[in-house]
Amino acid sequence: MRISAPPADVRLDATFAHDVPELALPWQADEAPDPRLLVLNEPLAADLGLDPAALRSADGVRLLVGNLVPDGATPVAQAYAGHQFGGYSPQLGDGRALLLGELLDTEGRRRDLHLKGSGRTPFARGGDGLAAVGPMLREYVVSEAMHALGLPTTRSLAVVATGRGVRRETVLPGAVLARVASSHLRVGSFQLARATGDADLLRRLADHTIARHHPAAARADHPYLALFEAVVTAQASLVARWMLVGFVHGVMNTDNVTISGETIDYGPCAFLDAFDPATVFSSIDEGGRYAYGNQPAVMQWNLARFAETLLPLLHDDQEEAVELATRALGGFATAYDEAWTSGVRAKLGLRADLDTAVVRPLADDLLRLLHGDRVDLTTAFRALGRAARGDLEPARGLFLELAAFDDWVDRWRSLGPDAAVMDGVNPVYIPRNHLTEEALTAASDGDLGPFSRLLDVVTQPFDERPGLERYAAPAPDDFGHYRTFCGT
After folding, report:
1. Phi and psi torsions of 267, nearest 5°
2. Measuring CA to CA, which residue among 320, 352, 118 is closest to residue 225?
3. Which of 29, 149, 177, 437 is most buried as measured by Cβ atoms within 10 A of its Cβ?
4. Where are the domains of the chain?
5. Taking 60 as the threshold, does the pLDDT of residue 301 lie above it?
6. Residues 34-44: b if buried by 16+ CB within 10 A, e if exposed
7. Vertex 282, ends 458 and 64: CA angle to 5°?
8. Of 196, 315, 309, which Cα lies nearest the Cα of 255?
């Protein structure tokens, strides 16, 4: 049922803060001097049972920046630890974010309402706790594009300009993002709980997580092992789907690995143009740790860190606990391969019952051709849909090694690819890096028109529409190497 009451009367629960108060620091958002709504996700608001008109009101906007807290709500900054670029940080936490609370959506699912850029908390570690309009709109447009592509992700409810300047290299207009997730529990949450040495805290966190995300684990013979196995499977599927659409997360630290299996934190993220496994966009990833092609291995490494936190819950004997965790972690490669192969089979329009021994070499050979000729991933797969209908030239024109491509096409077409299946999974439109930057630059200067147009395009990614050719085209040659920044 939609909540039509004033925003102050919206009910926000606090099960996380109640169950694990040691990881929840009560805090308040900074006062926004002149809040102004920039964008509101009305369909998401309705799904949450919220009234979009109420959210557009003055009180609604104040709710969206954390300056109007509903009665009974307990905003908290979540505490967690994490490995950042491989180095362990024992105390991280929400330095510029707040969990306003939890609500039940119209389907009865518990969802977090969370703010980003709402001001300094004790976890800020020298940061100003603020966010600029550009990075918050980036998270909005990319997360909503990911949702439209069918990938598990946090969602964006609104971006509100605060009326406060944010000093980065220059002074930028400030903003707060209101986002929604199944939860903000992460591997780093468990790392902090384990580091405290408090076995009861670790167990309560695991029980809270099972109840919230993986209730079937509670009925298993070994609930905590079942929890780990469920997270391994969810994350293997998630990163496989990133790879299939050419998404580069950019900052795969353990504090950005959710227990729910949703994509979180769209800071230095970007999408591939020319296919290259070594692609890195993030300005702070100097060693290429989080390059596109490294993402599956990094995710498995992150899950090994998760396994380490659960050892006391897996078995009283350390060696036996390690054996159980190692065996379960070994399932990552199988789960990833199955998810990726299933996804690429659909992208190539091949029958679901076609043997993997046929699908994988065919897909691998295509990727080698894409890499060698530096072909745009999204454009290539969409053009193959036309090739499946007999129009080879759009795809053929992308390649330099024509003989090799022709040989590959003959092998592929002999398998009877289904163009309709391909068009349902291969997007025409993604948040192209050059278009995203163009839209964010304009928005930072007060013009939301390019952002609104981009958002409309990428949230209907599979339906080719006339007049939108520039949104489907790769970056122009003069765009150069794209660099992204975390926004802090």
Report:
1. -75, -90
2. 320
3. 177
4. 7-183, 188-340
5. yes
6. ebebbbbbbeb
7. 55
8. 309
Structure tokens at 145: 């594009």
For 358, phi and psi rounded to 5 degrees?
Answer: -95, -45
Cβ atoms of 185 and 260 within 8 Å: the answer is: yes
End-to-end CA distance of the chain: 38
For residue 187, CA distances in Å to 36, 100, 260, 305 come to 35, 21, 10, 8
Q: How far is the CA of 65 from the CAs of 112, 118, 162, 407, 447, in angstroms?
A: 15, 7, 8, 57, 21
Quote the CA–CA distance of 485 and 478 in Å, as a whole number.
20
Interior CA angle at 270 toward 264 and 274, to 5°?
A: 145
Closest-CA residue to 440 (of 243, 270, 281): 270
Q: Residue 100 is inside which H or E element, if any?
A: strand 97-104
pLDDT of residue 1: 29
What stretches of 210-256 adopt beta strand conformation (E)? 247-248
Whole-angstrom distance, CA of residue 402 vs CA of residue 407? 8
pLDDT in tens, 128-157: 999 999 999 999 999 999 999 999 999 999
Task: Output the CA angle 204-11-60, nearest 5 degrees.
Answer: 125
364 among known catalytic residues: no
Burial of 463 (0-12, 13-18, 19+ CB in 10 A): exposed
Structure tokens at 60: 């609604």
Residue with tokens 């709980």: 193
Which two three-digit tokens encode residue 47?
């799904």
Q: Is pLDDT above 50 for 4? A: no
Predicted TM-score (pTM) above 0.90: yes
What DSSP character marks residue 109?
A: -
